[in-house]
Design a protein that fits this description.
Blueprint lengths: L1 H5 L7 H40 L12
Length: 65
Amino acid sequence: MAKALLGYVGGSDPRLIAEMRRLQQRVQDLESELGRIQAENDALAAAASHDFESIDVPQAEPALT
């Protein structure tokens, strides 16, 4: 993977190194955002399931035919 990021030339080009660092930082930012969003989603799902459990639903009636 590192060879793919550095390229087949050798990777001593400072622009290439700077771009690689920028991309690595972007990946880290996206991974942390994903973790935050997943935690928020889990909290919302837990709250939604708790809300539905507290609703008193009478016995289902047969459908009209």
